[in-house]
Amino acid sequence: MKVIVTGASGMVGKGVLLECLDHPKVVEVLSIGRRTLDLTHPKLKQIEHKDFSEFESIADQLTGYDACYACMGVSSAGMKEEQYRTMTYDYTMALANVLYGLNAKMTFIYVSGQGTDSSEKGRIMWARIKGKTENDIFKLGFKQAYAFRPGAIIPMRGVESSSKLYNFLIKSLGWLIKLMKKISPNSIVNTQQIGVAMINASIAGFDKEIIGPKEILMLAE
C-alpha cells in the first residue's frame, strides 16, 4: 500500500507517519508539507508545497496512491471564522478534490475532532466547519472515506505537540490521564493507535464513516 500523509510536522501527523513507515504492508509514504521533515527513511518521499489552497501544481506526483491521511489542522483559538475555514475546510477540500480526480478508489481519512457538528448549524464555530469538511469529503465518492474524531491524545515515540501548553499538560498530568483511562478506558487514544487504526481501516474497511476513540481502539488491535 502506498499512502500520502499531510500534517506530519504536527503531533498526530508525525505519529501516523511513523506507524506507516514501520508497517510491513505500507511500501511507500509521501509526506506533503510546507517544509521538509528532518527525517530520512527508505520508504519516505517528501514534497515541499507552500500553497495548500491548491494541489493541481503537484498533481503529477500524487497518482498511484492507495490512501491519504489528512492530518493537517490548526487550533481555532484566536482565529476569526473566515481564517479558520480557509485553513480547515478549504485546504482539506483542495487536496481531497485533486486526489479524488486522480485516485477515486483510494481511502481518504480526515482527522477531525470530538464534538464536531455534523449538522453544520451549531453555535460552535470550529465544530460547524469540521462538520462541513467531513460531510463534503463523504459526498465526493471515494471508495472509502472516514473522519477520525479522537478525544484526548497521548503522544508516543518522542512525538510532541506544537502546543507548549499541551506538552506541559501531558508531562505534568500523567496521573490524571491514567485515572481517566481507568474511569473511561475508551476515551483516550495515543498517536500509535491512531496510525495503526488508519492503516487497518484502509486495508480491511470499517462499517462506520465517523470513527471515535472507541472505534480507533478497536481498529488498532
Automatic annotation (TrEMBL):
Gene Ontology terms: cellular component = membrane
Enumerate the InterPro entries for this protein.
Epimerase_deHydtase, NAD(P)-bd_dom_sf
Q: Name one Pfam family in it.
A: Epimerase
Source taxon at top rank? Bacteria
Gene3D superfamilies reported in the protein's UniProt record: NAD(P)-binding Rossmann-like Domain
Q: What is the annotated localization of this protein?
A: Membrane
> Domain NAD-dependent epimerase/dehydratase, which positions?
3-112
Primary localisation category: membrane
Which residue ranges traverse the bilayer? none
This protein's name: NAD-dependent epimerase/dehydratase domain-containing protein
Taxonomic source organism = Owenweeksia hongkongensis (strain DSM 17368 / CIP 108786 / JCM 12287 / NRRL B-23963 / UST20020801)
